[in-house]
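Quick one: structure tokens for this chain, please?
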Amino acid sequence: MLDLGPTSWVLLAVAAVLVGFAKTAVGGVAAISVAVFAAVLPARESTGLLLPLLLVGDVVAVRAYRAHAHWGTLLRLLPAVVVGVLIGVVFVDRVDDTVMGRTIGVILLGLVLVHVVLRRRGNGPAARGGSGVRHHVATGSYGSLAGFTTMVANSGGAVMSLYLLSSGLSMLGFLGTTAWFFFLVNLFKVPFSIGLGLISTTSLVRDAVLVPCVLVGTYVGRRVIGRLDQRRFESLVLVFTVLSTVPLLR
């Protein structure tokens, strides 16, 4: 169960620290963790190993930022997210790793381009408190894509980052809403991941070894976030969202 080499364990440990850091500071950093886990292990195994570690980070993030969540945004998103997760379950069951990665990469690049264009025009796709058909379509689209990508490759953070950046939330509002969103969604994914064979006894034993690294990352993240201003925070989130598409398109 612990038959990985020293180099592999070091890489996984560093990636686990970044998981914790992403949960309490800059969410886009989690894209690096996804890439490292996928490089060390086969894609399906890496997905199953990563999910429980993400949940550990989610619990810490919820405890830290629970008071700052914007529940109106969450409630609007969740129905579409459930649909996206269910579509992702079918997708994982039917396609190979290469198709999975490239599909998600193309979707994320497209979303980044749309986000940048709309921001320059001054009308983000999911303005907070917005209304009308366009707003509901944007919420449904982002929600379903977040559910789909998080089920397929634990990469829903990039989609959620783009949605929340365009919603006008403060830095703490962003962190609180993201914390609750991924805690609920990742918990919802667990039985499906077990059913698909992504989570196994072997993966859980490896998770037990890596959990302390996640907790170290959450501690560091909480110290760093107090030193970031809103503009730098948004820039970092967007940069790491773009970087997250690179390993997926290879």
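Residues 97-121 form the longest helix (25 residues).
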